[in-house]
Design brief:
homodimer; 353 residues; alpha+beta; seven-stranded mixed sheet; four-stranded mixed sheet; 34% helix; globular
Chain lengths: 353, 353
C-alpha cells in the first residue's frame, strides 16, 4: 500500500535495522520473507491481534508495554505447543492519534520481546486508518518449530492426568481491576509485583521446551479464556472431565490483598465482581484475565520429574486437580463440597480487556 | 480473547469446516497450527492488512469481494517470490457495523480464493472493535514454499535484462476512478472487463511457478506501489537503472476508453488526475493501483522462452523496457523523447484506496 503519511518509511527502516535472525534467507524489504526450516521439524504458526481500547487502554499501557504484551500473547501460544519461536510478521493499522515515534516504540518493544525468545521480525505491514478511526490495531503472526510429531495439543489429556498450572492465574486480572477501580484509571493503586504480571508477563517458552524434552505432558493450553474456560477447552478436546481443587489453586500475597481490596470497594459498587473476598478471589483465579500462563495435563508417573524440571527452569508448576473419566468440570471447595463449573467457562470478567 | 459477541463462535466453526489442506498436522482450534514443511524447500511468508475505508469501501465492495481481494494481495506477494501457497492465518477486528454473517462471508470468500491456489486456512483470530470504531480491519498471513535457494527477489536484476509485466497495469485504478467519479460511487459506469480487474484480480502464482521452472527470471516484484514505484524498488534493490518505453506499455480497449472518459470529466474537475487523455492514460499505467500483476527482469537470452511459457500459462507478458547500468529511471515517450521518472515512484493516486 502506498504510504499516505510518509513517516512510515522510518518504521520500515527500523525493521531492517533489527537483528536479522537465524535461517532468514530474505528478510524485511522484499515482497515476502524467505526462511529456512530445519529438517525433522514441524512448523508451528499462530496469530494474535491487539485492538486498542479492547486489549489495552492507552491511559494504562504505554506503546512499549503494548508491544511487549502483544509479543507475550503470541509467545504463549507457541509455548502451549512446546515450540521454539523463530520468525514473526508484525502488522499495524495506525490512526492519526498515533505518532510514527509511538508506532516505532511499539514495534521495537514487540521485536525485542520476541528476540529475547529467539524470534526475529522478518516482515510486516503498515496501513493508515481512515480519519474516523482513532484506535490502533496490531497483529503479530509468530512462526516456530517443534520436533516432528512432538507438538503438544489440547487433545491428548487422559483420565488420571495431573492438572498443573504455571504462575499465579488471576494476577493480571487483579492488577487490571485495581487499576480500573477509580477514575482516572491508574497503576498507582497496584502493587509492583501484580502490575508486572500484567505489563511484563513472564514467558513460558523455556519452561515448555524443558518439560517437552523430559516427556510426560499429555496436553497443554495457554490461559487466554481463563482457567475455567481453558480447562473446558482442554477437556472437550481430550474427551475427559476434570476436578479442580480450590484450595490448591496458586495464590500470592499481592493477589490475596487485591481480592481483599476489591471486595471492600469496587466490586459491589460497580456490580462487576462477586461480593465477598473468597468468591472474588476464586473469580479472579478462574475467569479470563490474560495471564499467559500454561495449563498442563501431566502423566501422573511423570509428575514429580516435571515439577522438578519446572522448578529448575525458574517457573514452578502447581498441581491443581486431575482429569477424570466422567465428563464435566467440578470445583472442590475448601470445605470439601463439589460444585460444577459452568460448561462454557467462567463469566467474562468485564474489564475492558 | 473472550468473545464478547457470542456469534463469533459461528465463524470459528466455519474455519473448522473449511478443507483441511495438505500437510496440516494440527488445524484450527488449538493454540497454534502445526504444519509439515517439505524437505528441500524454503518457507516464504507474507502478510497484508485491509482496512475498511482505505483498501475498500463498503459501498463498492461486498464482503465477499473484499475477502477475495485480500487473498489476492497476499497471493500476489507469493507469486513475486515464485512460491507455492500452502497455509494461511486470517485475523479480523470486527466493528458492530459488521454482522457475523458478513464476516463469515468475507472469511469464506478469502479462504476459497486461497484454496483455489492450494492454500488452506489453518488458524486465525477474531476480535471485536471498541464501540467507537466502525471499520473492519482484516489481516492475512500467507505461508508458501519454494525450492531451496530458488526464491525470486527484487535484487537480482542485471543491466540488459528485459523488463516485462503481466496483465494490463492501470486497469484496477481506472475501474476504481470511474466508480468513484460520481456520487454515490457506483460500478454502473464501469465496463465489466475493467470492473473484474478490480473486484476479481487474476492470480499470477501459476505464471510465476511456470516461469521459475523454465528459468531466466532474475528479479521480480508485484505491483502494489504502481509500475513506476515498484520499478524504482526493483532497481534500487538490484543496483541498476531502467528505461521504460511508453509505447510498449500494455493497454486494453476498456482502459483506453476509461482514460478518455476520465479526461473528459472527473479528472480536471476534481483536480485528482492530470489533464489530457494521453497524460491521464500514462498516469493510470504508472501510478499505484493495486493491480496485483508482476513486474519481472528477465535474462534477454531467456526472454523468448519466458514469453512463450507465459502465453501457455494464459497470462501473457509484455516487454516494456530494459534495465540499464546507468542509474535512474527514464520514460521514453511515444515521440522518442526521454524524461526521468520521479525517483520515489509516481504520485499517489488519491482514490481512497
Amino acid at each position: 500500500m502506498p504510504d499516505p503519511r510518509g513517516e512510515f518509511a522510518r518504521i520500515a527502516a527500523l525493521l531492517q535495522r533489527l537483528p536479522r535472525g537465524e535461517r532468514v534467507v530474505v528478510g524485511p524489504g522484499d515482497d515476502a520473507a524467505v526462511l529456512r526450516p530445519r529438517p525433522g521439524r514441524d512448523l508451528v504458526a499462530t496469530t494474535d491481534t491487539f485492538v486498542e481500547g479492547r486489549h489495552f487502554l492507552r491511559e494504562l499501557v504505554t506503546p512499549s508495554e503494548a508491544g511487549r504484551r502483544l509479543a507475550a500473547a503470541n509467545l504463549s501460544d507457541l509455548a502451549a505447543m512446546a515450540a521454539e519461536p523463530c520468525w514473526a510478521l508484525v502488522s499495524l493499522a495506525v490512526p492519526a492519534t498515533w505518532s510514527a515515534a509511538a508506532c516505532e516504540t511499539l514495534e521495537h518493544a514487540c521485536a525485542s520481546a520476541l528476540a529475547a525468545e529467539g524470534a526475529a521480525v522478518v516482515g510486516g505491514n503498515l496501513s493508515a486508518m481512515p480519519a474516523d478511526v482513532g484506535r490502533l490495531v496490531a497483529t503479530v503472526t509468530l512462526l516456530g518449530e517443534v520436533e516432528a510429531e512432538r507438538a503438544w495439543t489440547r487433545g491428548g489429556g487422559r483420565a488420571g492426568d495431573v492438572l498443573a498450572v504455571s504462575g499465579v492465574p488471576g494476577s493480571a486480572a487483579a492488577a487490571l481491576a485495581l487499576a480500573l477501580w477509580g477514575a482516572p484509571p491508574s497503576w498507582s493503586r497496584v502493587p509492583d509485583e501484580l502490575r508486572r504480571t500484567f505489563l511484563a508477563p513472564a514467558c513460558r517458552v523455556r519452561l515448555a521446551r524443558a518439560l517437552a524434552a523430559a516427556g510426560g505432558v499429555h496436553a497443554a493450553i495457554d490461559l487466554s479464556d481463563g482457567l475455567a474456560g481453558d480447562l473446558a477447552h482442554l477437556c472437550e478436546a481430550s474427551g475427559v472431565g476434570a476436578r479442580l481443587d480450590a484450595a490448591r489453586l496458586p495464590i500470592s500475597e499481592p493477589l490475596r490483598a487485591a481480592a481483599r481490596a476489591l471486595s471492600a470497594h469496587a466490586g459491589q459498587e460497580r456490580g462487576l465482581l462477586p461480593a465477598g473476598e473468597g468468591a472474588l478471589l476464586t473469580h479472579l483465579q478462574l475467569a479470563p484475565g490474560d495471564d499467559y500462563e500454561l495449563l498442563l495435563a501431566v502423566d501422573p508417573a511423570a509428575w514429580a520429574r516435571s515439577a522438578a524440571e519446572a522448578e529448575q527452569a525458574g517457573a514452578p508448576l502447581t498441581a491443581i486437580g486431575e482429569l477424570t473419566a466422567a465428563p464435566g468440570l467440578l470445583l472442590r471447595e475448601s470445605g470439601g463440597a463439589e460444585r460444577p463449573l459452568p460448561a462454557g467457562g467462567w463469566d467474562h470478567f468485564p474489564t475492558g480487556n
